[in-house]
Here is the input.
Amino acid sequence: MTVLTTEPLMVETPTQLALREFHPFEASGARYVYLVPSAGIFQLDEPSGAILDVLAQGPRSDDEIVGALGQRFSEETLRDGLTELQQIRVIGDVGAPREQVVNDLPPEGFPLTTMVLNVTNKCNLACTYCYEYGEDKIVDTTCSDQPKFMADDTARDGVEFLLKESGPLKVAHLTFFGGETLLNFPVLQDTVAYARKRAEEEGKRIEFSLTTNATLLRPEIIEWLAENEIGVTVSIDGPKEVQDKMRVFHSGKGSYETVQPKIKELLRVHTSRPIGARVTLTRENLDIHRIYKHLHEEMGFWEVGFAPVTTAPDRDYEIQDEGYVRMLAQFGELARDWLEHAVENRHHGFSNIKDTLEEIHKGVSKAYPCGAGLGLMGVSTGGDVALCHRFAASDDHNFGTVADGIDRDKQREFLEEHHIKNKTDCHTCWARPICSGGCYHEANTRYGETQAPNLHFCTWVRSWTHTCLEIYGELSERNPSYLARFDA
Here is the structure.
C-alpha cells in the first residue's frame, strides 16, 4: 500500500480593517472627520459614514463590510469608499502600528520671524494677577541685574539681531513690550527710525507693534503711533467695575477712568492699523458677553481676545472647573455669533475663534505649542535673548544675547526636550495638532517646568477645538468663499 501525504491547504485570512486616529464632528447636517495627526478635514458621504459605523463595532474585512451594507449601497460604491478611507488613513489594517509623532526638529538656521523687545521691566500699574510683578514671577527682581529700562544701543543691537536672524525673510516683526511699554517711549521712537533705515538697506521691511495699558497715551504719542503704523494691543479687562477690580495703580485706585478717554482718542486717531483689546480672565471677571460688548461695540476695539489668567494653583483669582465650564459656554455662544456675521461677510471682533479657524484651515499640525524659542524670541532690557517675552531676564531660559547671537546648542537642546513626542500625555490626544501641550510659561508657573503639558487645560482645549471644528464645517457649507481670508 502506498500512502500519499499532502501539505495542509493554506487558506489566506482576509485583512481586517479597523478605525484609525480621527475626531468626528458634525456641521450643517453633514458628518466630518478631523484627521489626526495630519490635521486634515474630510467630509463623509453617506456610504463612508456607514462604513465607519460598521467598524465602530469592531474590526471587519472589506468583504464583511460590503456584505453588511450591500442592501443600502452598491458594491462598487462601498469598495471605492473603502479605498478612499484607507488612502486618507481614517481606516487601516487592524495590525498596523499606530502612527507615531515624528521627531521633525526644525532645520538649522530656522528664521526668526518675531522679536519682542522688553523695553522696560517697570510698570505704573500694580495688577493683582500680573506674571511680571505678582507672586508667580519666574525670576526675583531683587536679584536681577537687568536694567530698569532698555538703552538705545541695546535696542539697536536687537534690530541688527532681528535682521540677521530673520535670514531670507523679506518681512520681520518687532514687538515692543514691558512692563508698561510707553514708560520708555524715547527708545521706541529711536528704534523704529533706526530699524526702518536698516531694514531698507538690507532689502527688508520690519512691521512694528506694541502692547500697552493705555495709561500713558498722550496726543503726541497717539499721533506717532498712527503716523508710523504701529499695531497696538491694549491690555484691558472690561467696563469700569471689571477693570478696577485688579488693574489698579500702586495706590489701589482703579485705572478705568484714566484709560477710557485715552483709548477713545487712540481709536479715533489711529486708523492705519486695527486696534485690539487683550482681556485677562480671572475668577472675578467671567461675564465674557458683557466684556466683549463693552470693548467691541461700545468702546470700538476692532478685535477682542480673551486669555485665562496664568497662575499657580490656589490663588484667589484662579479660574476653577466651574469657571472653565462657564467660559466655554460663552465662548461657544460668541463663536456662533461670529459665524452668523461671517456667513453674511460682516466683521466680528472675537479674535479667539478667528485665530483657531485660521490654524484649522491651514492644516496646522504643531510639534511645539508656539514659536517661542524658534520663530519668536524675547529680549530683556539688558539684551539677553530669552525663550519669549514672558521669560525675559530668566537665566534658566536664556538663549544668548543680541550682541553675541544665539547659543545654538542650547536652543537645539530645548527644542529636542520640548518636542511633542516627549509629552507622554499628549501622544493620544486628538487635539494635539493645535495644542501641542500648551504654553511654556503656563506650564512653568503651574507645574514648575516648561516641559510639562498643561493638563488642567485639556478638557477646555478639546472642547473649544471641537466647537471651532463645527464652526469651520458650517462656514464651509454656508459661505465657503469666506475661508479664502485665511489663506494669506
